[in-house]
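The instructor's notes for this session suggest beginning with a concrete chain rather than abstract definitions. Hand out the sequence below and ask the class to guess, before any prediction is shown, which regions might be ordered.
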Amino acid sequence: MLRNNNMIPKVAIVYLSYNGKRYLDEVLTALRALNYQRESLEFIFVDNASSDGSQEYLRSVSDITFFANGKNLGFAEGNNIGINHALLHGADYVFLHNNDLKLHPDAISHAVSLAESDPEIGSVQSLITLWKHPNIVNSTGGMVHFLGFGFVRDNGQKLSEIIGGVPRPRFDGEEIAYASGAAVLYRAEVLKNVGVLDPFLFLYHEDLELGWRIRLAGYKNVLSIHSLAFHDYEFKRSIQKFFWMERNRWLVHFSHLNWSTLLILLPFMIIMEVPLLLFAIKGGWIKQKICVYASLLSPKSWSYVLRKRRESHMIRKVSDSEIMQLFTGKIIHQETNDPIVTWIGNPILCVVWIVIKKFIH
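After discussion, reveal the predicted structure:
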């Protein structure tokens, strides 16, 4: 963990608060119990206009830096307030801490040690298990489907089967497609190079998109199996989230893939819209799906995509083929598995992906 000048890296922990007052006592207790030099830590709390008394509670805490927002700015912009403060005040690393999550005492020290071992590491995700069931995994990293869907890896699996298990045990420093924004350490110099979270995305895929930029710039996103975080995770079937998830997967793909790659993928993305429309009708979110099309066709979205493509080109050091080596052909989300997806959709998509990725450069 020590650098050449024997200085312990400075870490800013950014906690984005939103109506999570019930967690604050335990979160603060866990932060104060971290096995890391206190002088090298800064606790930055940003509240997104909570209505449950969180702001009043946090104003009374003396050992934190606190920012109170007048409205809900979303995940990206809310976190960016803390991230930008950390970067301006000399942090070597920035750790994003979810609202409903607490850290193991060694979480930060293990994540920093792994990051310090390799200058090409841009982000380190903690191994996230369930708060109430710490033997059950919530995330060992983010996965990206070649059609743009993003989801967590190993959610619902037993920890004993993931660490040292078969057929695919997870190991410290394993490269992942992107790190979950719930518990991730970012190298400050990398953020200064590739930028922070994208507020245009507002909710969902912001961490995926940042992880993509990190990989475009030639850095790695990795997993630390020794840095443990405990997440009070519960899958919520919010109708509105489907708008953000569907819109943002298209925006991210069109922002960062070469036009030649998009021409290969676009027919399959369009074909995929047929079953998605059927799922939207069945799930009661067809209105949100139609709003996605309206948003994607708007001048505002195309202006955004063109700007992002210019920015992406400026930081790009690797090819689409290299980026997509960590992509998958399977759509996996344990709480919403559908027999049609599992037994028909995924086998077809996996074969398609095996074939078409040979043509991506």
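Then share the key points. The radius of gyration is 20 Å. Residues 82 and 88 are 10 Å apart (CA to CA).
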